[in-house]
Amino acid sequence: MEMDQLINRINELSRKNKSGGLNEQELAERDSLRKQYLSIFKRNFRDELERIEIVDEEPPMKH
Angle at which helices 3-19 and 24-51 pack, to 10 degrees? Predict the structure, then answer.
């Protein structure tokens, strides 16, 4: 499932929970989707951090 689809379904379940509650199957689905979302988010964040290159050079001094 793509991230956008995942978020949309999580939001659907959230709205349903606020308006009338979720059954056991929907609660289990929501928990599973949240875990998938966090896993994808962490992986994407880790990938982004690994692409960061730290450059710590002193600029040349001007006289």
Answer: 140
User: Residue 10, CB half-sphere, CA atoms under 13 Å: how many?
Assistant: 15
Residue indicated by tokens 């875990």: 35
DSSP secondary structure string for all residues of the chain: --HHHHHHHHHHHHHHHHHT---HHHHHHHHHHHHHHHHHHHHHHHHHHHH------PPPP--
pTM: 0.74
pLDDT per residue as tens digits for the range 1-60: 889 999 999 999 999 999 999 999 999 999 999 999 999 999 999 999 999 988 888 777
